[in-house]
Amino acid sequence: MPEAPLPSPERSERQRWMAVLARAPEASLAAALAAEPDLPAFTHLRRPEIGMAMTRGRAGGTGIPFNLGEMTVTRCAVQLPDGTQGHAYLAGRAPRRAELAALLDALLQAPSRRPRLMAALVEPEAARLAEARTLSLRKAAATRVDFFAMVRMG
Amino acid sequence: MYVAVKGGETAIANAHAFQAEQRRGDAAQAPLTLGQIEQQLGLAVDRVMGEGALYDRGLAALAIKQARGDLVEAAFLVRAYRTTLPRFGYSLPVDTARMTVLRRVSATYKDLPGGQVLGPTFDYSHRMLDFALAADAGEGGGGEAPGAPLAEAPLDPAMPHVTALLDSEGLIQPEPPAEPDAPPPGDITRDPLLFPAPRDLRLQSLARGDEGFLLALGYSVQRGYGGSHPFVGEIRQGPVAVEIVPEELGFAIDIGDIDLTECEMVNQFKGSRLRPPQFTRGYGLVFGWSERKAMAMSLVDRALRAGELGEERRGPAQDEEFVLYHADNVEGAGFVTHLKLPHYVDFQSELELIRRLRAEAEARLARASAEERAAADAFATAAV
After folding, report:
1. Same domain, residue pair B162 and B25
2. What is the average pLDDT across B274-295?
3. In a domain, B20, yes or no
4. Are residues B311 and B239 in the same domain?
5. Residue B246: which domain range?
6. Distance CA B152, CA B246 (A)
7. Which partner for B263 in A13, B48, B243, B284 could form a disulfide, CB atoms 3.0-4.6 Å apart?
8. CA-nearest residue of chain B to A13?
């Protein structure tokens, strides 16, 4: 994998849905596909495969990169009859989830399907992730220290 | 000389069955599930992921169960498993400034932007055993936790790194990013560790190093073996997104989050002929919620920078060969525990050697004592 500049906060819509699909539970992905009309046949460009990515950090948080340690990753790539390719890379060992995510990535690229899948799957999953994050951050906020000065008498 | 011998197959098979029975323990107890280990022994899982150098909570939990809770053995199991997996590539460097910060403390500034956020911590607890947890699950011991209180407003996780505050005043040694044409960072899983080791390889070695070893070295630095008077600039913990750039896509994709602990240690530096006095940095970054290790790592990282800062190396923590060759507990455990394996032929030759040396020494002693006795007898005769 080539080095690339840090991604800007403005991500393409595809990057956004791929990030959501990478975190969505298998049941949600399967339910969205089950509800999708006229599912095309697809072929595997790459069958679901479990492997690793070496994660990197930066010295001091901002300095030279270094290899921190590996993580498990599952990937899958599919192709629709019209040639559209769908890809999935996700943290952990989840072949079935990667296959569903790759298929959904392909379907989401079709303008005819995208609004429906965004509304039925991607947006609700993104909202669920945001809600979980907010809940964690509310717990963390409750542990923020409020300092007050002790008044010394006399 | 090597002599091939065979034997012990039955003994080994039976020993493994005995081990499996011991692992299961009293059958009256419910067996542990991986989910229980992952959820309720999460810090053990974190340690195994860090020292096993593979982030996968489920694999670490399995390794802990299989190793009967021996975390060094579990890290070994994880390291062995990783050799069976293909590597798809490298991630972009994680951006800890974009962490979903759930804990963040600084010992250098009381009122820093974002504040002191304690998060889930053992700090300020009295370290008294909580016998409420000892009650059976049905009696409330394994039951519902009280539930973490919720603030009205979530924490704003966009908090500046403390060192950035010092950086803006030029008071701390800058951490220059890599040159655009710099080679990719070295990887000790692919290439042998050579000395002098650059900082990227040192950090990789420390990140997978044994927590106990790093803790002892960090402690030694504080006690004067290469001391540098450290302050915790900042510790932050929480999940961080990991991004990779698959070749077939050519753009970065976010594949999920990993929990990380980051420690920035701020150290005094009195300056040198070429540099004015300023603070220097030690850095720790570890998988999971591993605060003690991240702190120890940052102390040792700073100590190992003695060379580049022109400091005299006075303590073991400053000796990079000593530190980096001995930080890995999988290698260390392998070499120490191999001593229990059959060394029959080696030992037989040692045994023969020591018998011969003893025979020679005894003959010499016998001669010497005979001469001494003769001399003593002569003296006694003369005295009479």
Report:
1. no
2. 93
3. yes
4. yes
5. 94-125+154-173+207-327
6. 40
7. B284
8. B253
Find the mean pLDDT for residues B160-172.
Answer: 86
| Interchain contact B146–A (C-beta under 8 A) | no
Q: What total number of domains does chain A contain?
A: 1
Number of C-beta neighbours around residue A48 at 10 A? 21
Residues on chain B touching A78 (C-beta within 8 angstroms): none
Q: Which domain holds residue A38?
A: 13-139
Name chain A contacts of B161, Cβ cutoff 8 Å: 61-62
Enumerate the residues of chain B whose CB falls inside 8 A of the CB of residue A68.
94, 203-204, 207, 285, 287
List of chain B residues whose C-beta atoms are within 8 Å of the C-beta of residue A66: 185, 199-201, 203-204, 207
Q: Is the residue at A145 inside a domain? A: no
* d(C-alpha B23, C-alpha B5), whole Å: 30
List CB contacts of B81: < 8 A, sequence separation 6 or more: B54, B59, B63
Residues B70 and B163 occupy one common structural domain:
no
* Residue B317: partners with Cβ closer than 8 Å, 6 or more residues away: B217, B218, B220, B221, B225, B226, B299, B300, B303, B304, B323
**Does some domain include residue B364?**
no
For chain A, say whether B58 makes contact (Cβ under 8 Å). Answer: yes
Q: Is B8 left (phi over 0), alpha (psi -120 to 50) or beta?
A: left
> Which one of B93-97, B138-142, B164-168 scores highest in mean pLDDT?
B93-97
**Domain assignment of residue B285, yes or no:** yes
pLDDT digits (tens, 9 = 90+) for B56-66: 999 999 999 99
Complex confidence, ipTM: 0.91
Domain-embedded: residue B134:
no
Locate A33 and state its tokens. Answer: 């596909």
